[in-house]
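2024-03-11 09:14:02 DEBUG pipeline.ingest accepted 1 chain
2024-03-11 09:14:02 DEBUG pipeline.ingest length=344
2024-03-11 09:14:03 DEBUG pipeline.predict start
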Amino acid sequence: MTAAHVPLIERYRDRLPFADGDPLISLQEGSTPLLQAPVLSEMVGASVRLKLEGANPTGSFKDRGMTCAVSAAVRDGAKAVICASTGNTAASAAAYAARAGITCAVIVPEGNIAQGKMAQTLIHGARVISLAGNFDQALTLVRELTSAHPIVLVNSVNEFRIEGQKTAAFELHEDLDGDLDLLCIPVGNAGNITSYWRGFRELGAAPRLFGFQAKGAAPLVEGHVFEAPETVASAIRIGNPVRWEDAMAAATESRGAIRSVSDEEILAAYRLLGSREGMFCEPASAASVAGLLKYGADGASHVACVLTGRGLKDPETAIAHNDGRVIQCPVEIGAIEEAVLGDP
């Protein structure tokens, strides 16, 4: 079995809290591609690569942590898991719970979950509760619920999530032979930047970590909770990150920073990735590239940007920001020729 087909826990069992014989709930996650980005490289004057976490089974980086969280839950005899989610965690938890044959419930902010993510969550059979509130309120309620009932919380407050997600740092280190100066990563609930730094520290590596929040949901940048976070990048529309202190420590210890980018900058990077690099990611993923373009490579020679989820997670945004590229045309060859061959 090649590395690309070895379940993540098996591949890195010596660095994860699992023993031989433990139950393993896997969809063969991890081992995601690291793609060269020639256009971005030229724009920032550094060698830039894209870590394609949308290649995980449910289309986002969440699967790395979820295989560990659900495997541990099953090992401990759990019959149900629950999470609060803006979408990706819900889809991942639902899929891994389905694979494990246990119950999954998710609480999502009403009207603020992309349809691609909702479709995934529903098809995997999760019980979906639509909350008349935001993600932070949903997480508060879920934590209260799990403190009173025997249900396992699988948000990134769960240490097994962080353990699983740190494996992306292992892969980057292996793929680049340790030659990485700077990592750009979107920041929402801040579990992922926390995980990468844990992974790099375990390896004795220390690339600078630059985390990017959307301007309308930038509590780590502004230093206070956002009671009503708002951004087109729904996956990072979080006003009170559960891993706040860990994320700040990761940025400080790695000599990096947490910075903000506007929705306009996120969408510009989103379109550039699609039209120039051939990469269709969800808007939140593009925050890493938006940050790189806005602030530059800061003297780094080797840069990686994490694209946290695939574009089909949020088809509405892609359609809404298509810049008029859909051309209406009658059934007539002359009109077709003009549409195909005319000025774009």
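2024-03-11 09:14:41 DEBUG pipeline.report The longest helix spans residues 62-75.
2024-03-11 09:14:41 DEBUG pipeline.predict end
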